[in-house]
Amino acid sequence: MAESETEAETQGEMEHFSVYRFSMEYPNVCRFEFNPKTKREKGDIVIHFPDREKVFLSWGQLATVMKKHVTPDAFASHSIKSMSKSRSITKTDKVESKSMTVNSHEAYYNKVQFHESVGMAFFGKGQTNVRTTLSVHLFCPNSSRYFVLYALLTPKAPEDFDKLFLEMVDSFRCH
After folding, report:
1. If you write DSSP's letter for every residue of the chain in order, what string do you get?
2. Domain 5-171's class?
3. What pTM does this model have?
4. How many other β-carbons are positioned within 10 Å of the β-carbon of residue 15?
5. CB neighbours (10 Å) of residue 145?
6. What digits encode the pLDDT tens for the residues 12-69?
7. Residue 11: which pLDDT band, with cuts at 50, 70 and 90?
């Protein structure tokens, strides 16, 4: 089936999304889903891609998270450790981590592979899936909020999805 001219022209274009005084650019082929309990102070949004990938954006009160985690790096480490404790996770590999600046704030990026056990056989081990997670943790004193952008990629995710994810993060404005 041939692609229409309109579809071809809009593929790869970015659009602007803004809510509760934060914003970011996203591919125009995505759709947004808000958690019904979302409000200015705390919430979650899922950005759905047509190829079934999802980017999650969560935020909350900075004072609350800073009681336990003084830096975005410490908060990110705690998040990874929490995910690693799942019964189905057999191994965790940190592929990449780096400090970065997002909208003038220190942020922390992680690319982590989780080895997930699925389907146990009677004797021996079941199959293992490797899932990649991309995340950025950010503290914004200007808005008194923390933000976490993350993606748990499917096995069929495009190889360069991390580049698109970081492009979205680079466009993020928290105040």
Report:
1. -PPPHHHHHHTT-EEEEEETTEEEEEETT-EEEE-TT--SSSEEEEEE-TTS-EEEEEEEEHHHHHTT-SSHHHHHHHHHHHHHTSTTEEEEEEEEEEEEEETTEEEEEEEEEEEEEE---SSS--EEEEEEEEEEEEEETTTTEEEEEEEE--TT--TTHHHHHHHHHHH-B--
2. alpha beta
3. 0.86
4. 12
5. 25
6. 699 999 999 999 999 999 999 999 999 999 999 999 999 999 999 999 999 999 999 9
7. low
How does 55-72 read in b/e, with b if 16+ C-beta sit within 10 Å?
Answer: bbbbbbebeebeeebeeb
What distance in Å separates the CA atoms of residue 7 and residue 129, rounded to the nearest whole number?
34
Residue 126 has pLDDT above 80, yes or no: no
d(CA 59, CA 41): 8
Return the domain boundaries, the chain. 5-171
